[in-house]
Amino acid sequence: MQTIRNDLGPVNNLLERQYVPGELLYPQSVGSERVNKARAPAPETVALSLQGVGKTYQVNGQALEVLTDINLDIRQGEFVCIVGASGCGKSTILRLVIGLESPSTGALLIDGHRLEGPGLDRGIVFQEHRLFPWLTVEQNVLLGLDASGMHAAKKRESVREHISLVGLDGFANAYPAQLSGGMAQRAAIARGLVAKPRILLLDEPLGALDSLTRTHLQEELLRIWEQDKTTTIMVTHDVEESIYLADRVVVMDPRPGRIRTIIDVDLPRPRRRGNPEFAALKGKVLGELRH
Length: 291
Known about the structure:
Blueprint: E1 2-3, H1 9-18, E2 19-20, E3 24-25, E4 46-59, E5 62-75, E6 79-84, H2 90-98, E7 105-110, E8 113-114, E9 122-125, H3 137-142, H4 152-165, H5 181-193, E10 199-203, H6 211-228, E11 231-235, H7 239-245, E12 248-253, E13 258-264, H8 276-289
Parallel strand pairs: 1-4, 6-11, 6-12, 9-10, 10-11
Antiparallel strand pairs: 2-3, 4-5, 4-7, 7-8, 12-13
Helix pairs in contact: 4-5, 7-8
């Protein structure tokens, strides 16, 4: 069990000292009986495995169980979305995967090895872009390679490639205040990807954007994902977004957070939101959420 402190103690220290806020974390050196096990991925293709994972905090001397019996295998190159009501533990799962916290029970494995703390093999992007306002786009993205040990020239080359990848050519010397919300989030995604992580975690990265920008960035996310096929786990409250983006949608129940079901999205890309099959899958996810 882990005790929550008002000042978050070691967690704040880790945030300040060991990773660029919002994007990457660096080391110094799913579910219930209702999970669809018939279509579980083959062991040799599993990039990330959560095995009987639970998380319990101590709050005011009382145990608060936020996750229980999370069993989930995610295939290499897969795009998975996690949906569920607020407070069901979606973001807690991401914090466990990124290595900011440890499970109270169970284990997380990457390529069959137990996950121990943050690492360059995982990147994360949050709802807020969290770019440093006094740094340019190029400098913000470069921070994603701060602990990589890469040669300076190679770093600059990688930064240029990723700025281009997210469609920000011509804005390398711009400051965050000079960018639109969507452009700033693209820069955040570039910083999350620049170290070429094995797993990219997205914690509602489009949630603060207007509808048109959000739709456009959903298309951009798919374009970027299809280019490198980085294993991606995205938390979202938008069911339509999950159907549009994901290979599978993990539906969670709250209190304590647990997997209710996993729904395969067996639709060809690019997906059409007005397609009857698309609407049927959206209705199926909504139905599970409203049980």
